[in-house]
Amino acid sequence: MMDEKIRVRTDSRYAELYDGLKRTLVSEFHELFFLSACIGFSSRKKRKLVKAEDRFWSGTIKPAEWTVYYSMVLKNNAMDFASIGDDKEVIKSIEEYAASGLDILVAGYLDEYLLADQLEPRLDINAAIELPKLTLGYLFQQWQNSVKND
Amino acid sequence: MLLEKLKLHNFRQFLGIQEIDFAMDADQKNVTVVFGENGRGKTGIFRAIMFCLYGDRLISQDERIDESEIKLVNLQALQQAEPQEPVDSFVELEFSHHQIQYVLTRKLLGMLTEHGEQIEEISSVNLVRKEPKGNSKIITNDMEINDEIKKVLDRGLKDYFLFDGEKIERLTRASKEQRKEISSAIRNLLNVNALERSVAALTKLVKQFEADLKNTSHAELAQILLELSRIEDKLLAGKEDISNIDEEISHAEEEKQSLDQELDKYKEIGHLVQRRKDYLEVIEKSNKTKASLLGEMKSQLAKSSILLVSETILEVYKHLCDMKEKGEIPPEIRKELIERIISDEVCICGRELIKGTTEYKCIQAWKQRTSDVVMQDMALQLWHQLGIVDKSIDDIVNSTQSLLIQYANTRNDIEEYEEKLNVISEQIGGSERSDIGDLERQRTSVEIKLRHLEAKKQNLESNQKTLNNERSHQIDQKSELEKEVSMQDEITGRAITARKVRDALETVHDEFTKEIRLMISKLASELFVKLLDAQGREMLHEIAVKDDYSLELLDRWHSPFLANISAGQRQIMSISLIAALAKLAAKNNVFEMPFFMDTPFGRLSHDHRKNLIFELPKICSQWILLATDTEFGRSEAKDLKASGKWGKFYILKAVEGGATQIKPIAVEKSGVYLRNTEVPG
After folding, report:
1. Is B162 found in the same domain as B18?
2. Distance CA B231, CA B360 (A)
3. Contacts of A129 (CB under 8 A, 6+ apart)
4. Is B308 in Cβ contact with A39 (below 8 Å)?
5. What's the domain range around B627?
6. Same domain, B136 and B177
7. With contact defined as beta carbons under 8 Å apart, do B449 and B217 qualify?
8. C-alpha distances in angstroms, A72 versus A92, B325, B390, B645?
9. Could you say which DSSP state residue B73 is in?
């Protein structure tokens, strides 16, 4: 469990965006990856990575984040513990959720903070000062909606 | 000089012939009031006198007007005349001076051109001079007339006796011009300038003698003369340095005064500026809080992401709890033990286990329910971790919500205070008035500069003193030497005499001007205190004419107070000074000169007016007052009547066509034409 030596990969198209969001929205790559994965999973969307590149070591992932990743995979595999037996497979599955999650984030509101006329999405750092507040608000809103639906 | 009669013909607003007889009985009634609303021609009368006496078309209030723009011939008279027909106009002034009667007439010709342009020129001027014994002389030569008028009232002095309201206040301003005016008034009135000219001439003479001596004298004497010349040069340079520093001090004082005035304006808005500063501090603090909250949110974001999958976490956690309850994790019997029983076909109790029996089937079923050790550990660990995560969800919700609320409140605060800031900035009005701090810093720096300059001046003065001592010493040595080498020839004798006379005159000059300044200070202070209202008297104590002829006003603790007095008090101070100069020039008798004032009461409080009305007729030989309805009303008229000095009253009345008629009114009936005045607070 919690293999520390896996290279976690992300969509290479989002390389610049990952760097920009690390400066404004989160402090570490694994946090952004976790946020994206949660968004993707809660939307029941995952996307295979056609072109990916190594982003960070799995050793930076916190135990609570691993717990959530295992829960996601378990839930997706009818609670079959065999599905979480291999951490590489777990991470591979989560990478697909994270890719989709970041797509949702870009389409939802991040695109307003992207620089125009760029080949790949690139964040306008000066305009993105309030992103943490915006994203936290989004998470809280989603949670409230889910509580209401219950 | 006493003004007796003014006759105007087609001059300015006055159509046809109009006359004013001035009250001029110095012991009895010596006050004349010419009363008129603004625009009726009071200043026209003032202008007529200036024109008649000096040929001036411009008066002090015409500072920025070109002389050609001032038209003196009455327009209505020009319009009534035949086209391109010249119209006569004149001003005739009768006055007396030291028992000699004068009638001065200055005539003008005016005409409207075919294009409606008004052109005019002075056609003639003549002065009739009548001796007490009856001999008369008519003077028509301009130069002679000017010389005669100069003897009566020099142009340099006229501004002290014939003036408008603006002029009065100007005397008290801390400026180079003011110092020059005071100094020139003292010089002119008391003939100090003659003394100064003598000192300058003698200095020149001494230098000339010494230059001659240098060429003819003994080497040692020449050395001393050289040294003396060097000292003289240094003294001269030092004098110039002191004068330059005085100039700088004056500029710095003006700057300080102007900063004080600017700061006075701020006093009114001081509380607003303070409040704005407070708002800015709140906004700055809130912005810091906002930045810090954004930092906290950044750290919180990964934790809060769990909220999106909280249901899944709960579901998996519940599932694991169920498994645990059912004994599936950890299993009741280890998988390895069951596998050994099955392979050995011997139960743990020692009995044989036979395939196909119920017991064998039960053991097989157990085997199905167990899992390997790794999986069990993993499930247990996950169960444990999920328990922790599940318990933390409430905390995550609370901290997320709290951060969002704090952030919203902070932003609201910023918006609220920014709005308040805008409102208060508008009230304060303009960014150029925004920073008192800058002004105060500037003022402090000017004050420091002033202190440095004063210190520098003191050093220079002390150097001058040393040089003067050195000079005296050298002069003594030189005299000794001159005696020794028997060089007291004619030049030496003359040089010594000239120097002695020069030094003596310098001493006389210094002592005299010092004495004059003290006397003027004393006389002006006495009158000033009389003219002030009770509140001013309580606070203000003395007018001082300083060494550089600038004025200072001292309060009861002898501290400078000039920068703080009101405009009315400034006028009173100036009038006191002029009266003191006049009194001094007349050697404490009543100075035979009129005080001719155009609208002088505008800025005076009721008490100041009242005091002026009672005191001024006693100290001047004649007072002519051109007053408007806002400054001279029933109350002032009542006070003036009570003084027993009011002799003549004229009103300037509008007549058809826009001209003005000068109408004499009996003083007793003045109340009918006057109304109640409003006095500045």
Report:
1. yes
2. 138
3. A24, B294
4. yes
5. 2-192+518-673
6. yes
7. no
8. 12, 22, 14, 112
9. B
pLDDT, residue B253, reads 87
Q: What's the rounded Cα separation, in Å, for the pair B266 and B279?
A: 18
Residue A81 CA: distances (Å) to CA of A85, B211, B600:
7, 124, 107
Query: Are B30 and B173 in the same domain?
Result: yes
Q: Are B475 and B221 in contact (CB under 8 A)?
A: no
In a domain, B650, yes or no: yes
The crossing angle, in degrees rounded to 10, of helices A131-149 and B310-325 is 50
Place of tokens 């001013």: B536
CA–CA separation, B321 and B380 (whole Å): 10
pLDDT category, B315, cuts 50, 70, 90?
Answer: very high
Query: Does residue B400 belong to any structural domain of this protein?
Result: no
Q: How far is B387 from chain A (nearest CA, A)?
A: 10
User: Among candidates B603, B651, B596, which has minimal Cα distance to B60?
Assistant: B596
pLDDT digits (tens, 9 = 90+) for B72-96: 999 899 988 887 788 999 999 999 9
Would you say residue B304 lies in a domain?
Answer: no
Q: Are B371 and A81 a contacting pair at CB < 8 A?
A: yes
Other beta carbons within 10 angstroms of residue B79's beta carbon come to 12
Q: What is the pLDDT of residues B165-191, one digit of tens each?
A: 556 666 666 566 666 767 777 766 667
Whether residues B104 and B207 fall in one domain: no
Looking only at the bridges linking them, the beta strands covering B540-545 and B551-555 are: antiparallel
Residues of chain B numbered 288-317 and touching chain A (CB < 8 Å): 293-294, 297-313, 315-317
B312 with A41: Cβ contact below 8 A: yes
Q: Give the pair of three-digit tokens for residue B595.
A: 């005080």
Kindly determine whether residue B305 and residue A139, on different chains, have CB atoms separated by under 8 Å.
yes
- Six token digits for residue B41: 């021609």
CATH number at residue B123: 3.40.50.300
* Helix, coil or strand: residue B55: coil
Closest residue in A to B392 (Cα) is A64
Domain extents for chain A?
7-149
Cα–Cα distance between B390 and B106 in angstroms, integer? 112
- Judge whether B393 lies within some domain: no
DSSP B352: B
Q: Could you report the per-residue pLDDT of A45-61, keeping only the tens digit for each? A: 999 999 999 999 999 99
> Of the candidates B607, B636, B635, which has an alpha carbon nearest to the alpha carbon of residue B623?
B636
A-chain CB neighbours of B400 within 8 Å are: 136, 139-140, 143
What is the reported pLDDT for B329? 74
Residue B175, judged by CB atoms within 10 A of its CB (0-12, 13-18, 19+), counts as: middle
The CATH number for B456's domain is 1.10.287.1490
Instruction: Please give the pLDDT value at position B333.
Output: 58
Confidence at residue A60, expressed as pLDDT on a 0 to 100 scale: 92
Q: What is the ipTM of this complex?
A: 0.95
List the single best residue of A60, A75, A139, A149 to mutate versus B (max B Cβ within 10 A): A139
- Residue A32 banded pLDDT, cuts 50, 70, 90: very high
**In which residue are the tokens 């200036």 written?**
B50
Q: Is the domain of B202 the same as that of B74?
A: no
- The backbone region for A80, taken as left when phi is positive above 0, alpha when psi lies in -120 to 50, beta otherwise, is beta
- CA B671/CA B595 separation, integer angstroms: 24
Q: Which residues of B touch A89 (CB under 8 A)?
A: none
Interchain CB distance below 8 Å, B306 and A38: yes
Per the CB < 8 A criterion, the answer to whether A25 and A127 are in contact is: no
CA atoms lying within 13 Å on the CB side of residue B119: 10
At B522, which amino acid appears? Answer: K
Residues A64, B392: C-beta atoms closer than 8 Å: yes
